[in-house]
Design brief:
The chain is α/β, with parallel strands linked by helices. About 45% of the residues lie in helices and about 15% in strands. The model is unreliable at about 1-15, about 680-685 and about 830-840 (pLDDT under 50).
């Protein structure tokens, strides 16, 4: 940053401040929202309030120094080589960090060392490998609300991925996209509309408010045109999507503020198109445990971990994206399956491919660091290794008969000509991670580097010769020559022998047990050595900058190659998992039938071990769209229902399945309503959360969707819950037409099989033996005869006294229910035996209207009209 602007500093801080503090305050004034890491020699120092915050959050010792007259300034610091770990902890706690570096060598500076903020680091702008999760994208998102539409843009600054989209006001697709992204940081305009704030609440997002002007569509569009050097945004399909452009422009402005060197890694922007992939809402991803288990959990025990056979970070990120956005076109799914099948059928080639991919580094992020000038020598060597591995993979695939997808990926692996060879010729075999930490340029690559390095090494021989000569001249055998960065070269003599030093020795430093001296010869040598070292460092820096620039110039080709490598790794990983575990290729088409023979839940099977999981069949088709599953707790209803959803999703990712055979008619959405949880932050009860999820499903599901419901209605009274479950089932059958698995404890619902032609009853097989129950985990046609709730409670360890009391109460309730059923049979009601707990909904409606009627104000004619309407309603319910 410029050193100008001192006039804007607070007067009390300017008065009497030394130049260094003035410089600090000027830079801090430009970044008031961030903690300023101010480079001083080998440390990053923090001052004033920043120091107090950092000391508290990082458990650092807070010290002080009188940098202002009469005032002790709080300060603390961290070593620059270890700063990354401290920055990570601050960012995880929600802080932003402005990294202020020395822009010149302090030894060469005339007066105050020039300093600039080179990065402002926040959760959504991370670029450093040590701060990033290699297996997932780190997205920054921006939301731009408008009167008629809302824009959502997102970017990964570390990979250059940049996308935006627009939704009409009232549509929910943008929220589902935001849930899928799980962005590290979300940008919102100041003065956020209340309805938008409500929609975003409770999602655990890290919000950063930005000036509303950044979200102005005209201003944002101009910023995008300037960045991409285009006269219009028509090529990006954004001319008619002002809010999509607004979100993208606001995001670009934020990244530009955080990266003063520019945002050259963002070379293109793609439009988010509805329907290009399956949208999965937050409830479905959570319930199916696709990529994360639990709110704070990792990927252990998820579908991602189960299907992960990748060997690179590129492949793991690709597989994660595929699972989060399954395909919805059978043609695209089958292209992936063709590729996986080819690799399954060629185990030797697959093994060689895995070995070659093991040499691939994260070229996507390395290329970004190169184009931003952040890549170190070791980064460039890893790019060379990746280029060589990519060429070897291309050669391997060239010798195989490849389906369309694999052939296209192989063609994208052609490396930039000569780049790997140039990097290998230029860099030493084991370069340091940063310049200045060791030799970088290989001997023989540059004559000037070789000459300067020779001068430096010859001087080391000369130093040893001087040391030996001075020992002989003075007779001091313990005399030694040393060097440090503060005092340069010196001759060290113990205090006991200081009387033996010759008169031409000039004292330079006194220690507790020794004296240090310098001679004219040593001064002259130091000047020559330092001059050679500085010239060598400059020349290596020049050559390295040119190499880094060469890599950055190939950004587009390197990204294309990295993308192809990532997809290849994801495909071979799916093939490796399929081959190891005996998975089969599903038949995928655009039909409405889902039929899986002896299917197994891949995650649960892996947790239990080979042969332990009980497989089951499923058939969903137009004539059996709803499977109503009853049975006791712990019998496996929920596992069965989730298993079907997970297998369908895995097939549309492109994976083989754990089954004897599978036929999957692609689904456009998967919806789940499973489990219970309060949303205390939003003031929502368990039942309110449940009903919100059910409402979302009923509004969004289509005949092409797959719906999984588990225990709908249990969060309220029995009558209310049963009524809602009944009505939801009818609505899904008659109005929505989605393929549905409904696990329930409301056995009364099984009577709907007689009324709804596309509903089929299934139950979990149970055996009773000696008063005990055995869960067989098998699904069979029919309805459960009883719930076995007391038996399950016994297994859970409920005290015997409570169980005995529950059995007596159950017997009494069953007798009462039997009496009501008998009365119903005498009255000729065909549903009385099945639905004794619940009167017909039409009767409930009549009774409710009768309860509310005002008898005093109802005329005889109105009463007759009401009676006629009620009679028609009840007669219609009997039809």
């Amino acid at each position: 940053m410029s050193a100008s602007g001192a006039e804007s500093l607070p007067a009390e801080r300017r008065g009497g401040a030394p130049p260094l503090l003035e410089q600090y305050l000027r830079i801090k004034a430009e970044h008031p929202e961030a903690l300023l890491f101010f480079r001083l020699g080998d440390f990053f120092e923090l001052f004033f309030e920043d120091a107090e915050i950092a000391a508290r959050e990082l458990d650092l010792v807070l010290t002080g120094r009188e940098l202002q007259k009469g005032r002790r300034v709080p300060m603390c610091g961290v070593p620059h080589h270890a700063a990354e770990s401290y920055i990570r902890r601050l960012v995880e706690k929600g802080y932003r960090v402005a990294l202020c570096e020395q822009m010149e060598d302090p030894r060469l500076a005339r007066g105050l060392v020039e300093r600039q903020v080179i990065r402002v680091i926040s959760a959504g702008t991370l670029l450093e490998p040590g701060l990033l999760d290699a297996g997932r994208n780190n997205f920054l998102a921006a939301v731009a609300p408008g009167r008629r539409a809302l824009g959502l843009a997102y970017a990964d600054a570390s990979t250059g991925e940049f996308r935006t989209g627009e939704w009409a006001t009232g549509e929910e697709g943008w929220l589902e996209e935001l849930d899928r992204l799980q962005p590290a940081e979300v940008l919102l305009p100041e003065g956020l509309p209340a309805e938008l704030e409500e929609a975003l609440s409770g999602r655990g997002l890290r919000i950063t408010l930005r000036p509303a002007r950044d979200f102005d569509p005209a201003r944002a569009s101009a910023r995008l045109r300037e960045h991409f050097q285009t006269a219009s945004l028509a090529a990006f399909d954004l001319e008619t999507r002002p809010q999509g452009a607004a979100a993208a422009g606001a995001l670009l402005a934020y990244l530009a503020d955080s990266q003063p060197a520019g945002v050259a890694q963002l070379t293109e922007i793609r439009l988010l198109q509805p329907g290009e992939a399956m949208l999965l809402d937050a409830a479905t991803r959570r319930n199916l445990e696709l990529t994360q288990r639990g709110p704070e959990g990792g990927r252990q025990g998820t579908l991602l971990e189960t299907l992960d056979g990748t060997v690179t970070a590129l492949g793991l990120r690709t597989l994660r994206r595929w699972i989060e956005r399954p395909l919805t076109r059978a043609e695209a799914v089958n292209r992936r399956l063709d590729a996986v099948e080819t690799l399954v059928r060629n185990p030797l080639e697959r093994a060689r491919l895995r070995k070659l991919l093991g040499g691939v580094r994260d070229a996507e992020r390395l290329a970004t660091r190169a184009v931003l000038g952040l890549a170190g020598p070791r980064d460039l060597l890893e790019i060379a290794q990746t280029l060589e591995a990519a060429e070897a993979v291309r050669q391997l695939l060239g010798g195989m008969a490849l389906p369309e997808l694999l052939a296209g990926l192989a063609a994208a692996l052609e490396p930039p000509p000569g780049l790997a060879e140039e990097l290998r010729r230029a860099l030493v075999d084991e370069p340091p991670s940063a310049l200045g930490e060791g030799d970088v340029i290989r001997p023989g690559y540059d004559a000037e580097v070789d000459r300067l390095r020779s001068l430096s090494r010859n001087s080391e021989d000369e130093i040893r010769a001087i040391e030996q000569r001075e020992r002989e001249r003075t007779g001091i055998r313990s005399l030694r020559l040393g060097y440090n960065r503060v005092f340069g070269y010196y001759i060290e003599v113990s205090r006991a022998q200081r009387n033996q030093v010759p008169p031409d020795y000039v004292r330079k430093q006194t220690l507790a047990n020794a004296e240090r001296y310098v001679t004219e010869e040593l001064r002259a040598l130091e000047e020559r050595v330092e001059s050679a070292r500085e010239a060598l460092a400059r020349r290596e820096a020049e050559l390295f900058a040119a190499l880094r620039g060469r890599v950055g110039a190939e950004l587009a080709r390197l990204r294309a190659m990295a993308g192809a490598l990532g997809r290849l790794d994801a495909l071979q990983g799916l093939a490796e998992v399929a081959a190891q575990r005996g998975y089969v290729r599903p038949r995928v088409d655009d039909g409405e039938r889902i039929e899986i023979v002896q299917g197994r839940h891949p995650v649960v099977e892996r947790a239990l071990g080979p042969g332990e999981f009980v497989p089951n069949d499923v058939v969903l088709a137009p004539e059996r769209r709803i499977l109503l599953i009853t049975g006791p707790n712990m019998a496996g209803k929920s596992t069965y229902a989730r298993q079907v959803a997970v297998l369908v999703l895995a097939a549309q990712v492109g994976s083989f399945l754990p089954a004897e055979s599978a036929h999957i008619g692609v689904v456009d959405r998967i919806f789940t309503r499973i489990g219970s949880a309060d949303d205390l932050a939003a003031g929502k009860s368990t039942f309110m959360v449940e009903m919100g999820e059910v409402a979302h499903i009923l509004r969004q599901a289509t005949p092409r969707s797959l719906v999984v419901l588990d225990e709908v209605g249990r969060g309220t009274s029995t009558f209310d819950g049963l009524s809602l479950a009944w009505a939801v089932t009818e609505y899904l059958h008659d109005r929505v037409g989605a393929r549905t698995l409904f696990a329930t404890h409301y056995h009364e619902l099984t009577g709907l099989e007689a009324k709804l032609p596309a509903l089929v009853n299934l139950t979990m097989a149970v055996e009773e033996e000696g008063g005990r129950i055995l869960f067989l985990r098998r699904v069979k046609p029919g309805a459960a005869s009883r719930s076995y709730g007391i038996e399950v409670a016994r297994l859970a360890g409920i005290p015997a006294e409570v169980l005995r009391r529950a059995e007596r109460i159950l017997e009494r309730l069953e007798r009462e229910q039997a009496r009501r059923a008998a009365r119903g049979r005498l009255e000729g009601s065909p549903e009385a035996e099945q639905l004794t707990l619940l009167p017909p909904p039409e009767l409930l409606q009549v009774l409710e209207e009768l309860r509310r009627i005002d008898v005093e104000r109802t005329t005889p004619l109105e009463a007759l009209e009401r009676l006629a309407a009620w009679q028609a309603l009840l007669r219609g319910s009997e039809a």
